[in-house]
C-alpha cells in the first residue's frame, strides 16, 4: 500500500470536508471547531501508514558504523541490515534493498577511506545526504582465559590495525596480523575459531555483545581519533541549505600539464570557497592518471558554490556531484562579504542590464 502524506498531520481532505458538514460549520469561513480538528487528527493517526525502511551498514552489531547509524534520527526503529563491505552496502541502495547506507569515508589518522572513495567514483546514481562523526578507540580482546603472553597473532580490520601500530610495537613487537572484514568480525573469528589469531582489535562496545576478556584498553595511537561517516541514498534533491553545509565532489583533470591542478583549485579560491579535503585517487586506466576527491565548504544552492561548480563543469571532463549536506559539527561556513549570495545576484543583474541595453545607474 503506498504511503500518502497529507499536510502536517497526514489529514485526508475528504475527511476534512465530511467533518465540516458533520460539525455544521456556518459563517466561520474555513474554520473548524476544536473538537472536529481533534477528531481529524485522531482519525488521521489511525489511517496513517508508516513505511518501514531498511538501512545498510558494515556489521555485525557493535561496529563503529552501527554507532554512526544510531545518530540518524529517522533510522531509529527501522530495519538495520548488516553487510560485509562498502560495495555490498551501496549495492543494497542501488538495487532497492535499502533506503540508505552508512559508510565510513574519512579517518582523522589514516585520511580518506579508499574503498569508499573509489566506489562513489564509479557507481552512478548515489547521493550523500548527511555526515556523522564517531570518536574511535580500540581494545584488544580474546576468549576467556587468554593472557597477553599467549598472543602471537592478532586479527584486525586494516584501518583499525594501522591506528594501533604504536601500542602493538611496544607491547607485542613480534606479532603477526590477520586482516578481518570489520572491527567486530575480527573478534568473532577469534571466538568461533575461524581465525588463527588469539586476540582481536575491536571497538570498546564489543563487550556488550560478546563474551570476551579485554586484554588491553585504549590501544589506539591517538586519543582524539575520529572517523567520519556519510549516509548515502539514491540520487535525490540535496537537503535544504543550513549555512553549515559541505559539498562533496569527485573531479578529473582534463590532461596532465603544469598548472592543471592549480586551474581546478582556482575555480574554488576565486569564489571564496574553502576546501576541507582534497585527495587524489588513481583512475586506473593508465599510470599517472588521477581523480580528486574534494570536500568544499558550502551548499550547491549557495551562489558562490553554484558558480564554482559551473566553472568546474566547463573545466573538467568528468565531475561526480556526491551531494551537499549539513556538516556534522554544525559549524557555520564563513566567507568574505564579497562572496555573499546577494553580491552574485547583483553582478548578474548588472550583466543582464549591459546585454539588454539598460542605462547604468
Automatic annotation (TrEMBL):
Pathway given for this chain reads: Amino-acid biosynthesis; L-phenylalanine biosynthesis; phenylpyruvate from prephenate: step 1/1
EC numbers listed for it are 4.2.1.51
User: Looking at the UniProt record for this protein, which Gene Ontology cellular component terms does it annotate, in alphabetical order?
Assistant: cytoplasm
All residue ranges annotated as the Prephenate dehydratase domain in the record: 54-234
Keyword Amino-acid biosynthesis on this protein? yes
> Taking every annotated instance into account, which residue ranges of this chain make up the domain ACT?
249-327
Q: Which reaction does it catalyse?
A: prephenate + H(+) = 3-phenylpyruvate + CO2 + H2O
Q: Which organism is it from?
A: Microbacterium tenebrionis
Q: Which GO terms describe its molecular function?
A: prephenate dehydratase activity
**Name of this chain's protein:** Prephenate dehydratase
Identify the PANTHER family for this entry: PREPHENATE DEHYDRATASE P PROTEIN, PREPHENATE DEHYDRATASE-RELATED
Keywords on this record?
Amino-acid biosynthesis, Aromatic amino acid biosynthesis, Lyase, Phenylalanine biosynthesis
GO annotation, biological process: L-phenylalanine biosynthetic process
Give the matching Pfam families: ACT, PDT
Q: Which domain of life is it from?
A: Bacteria
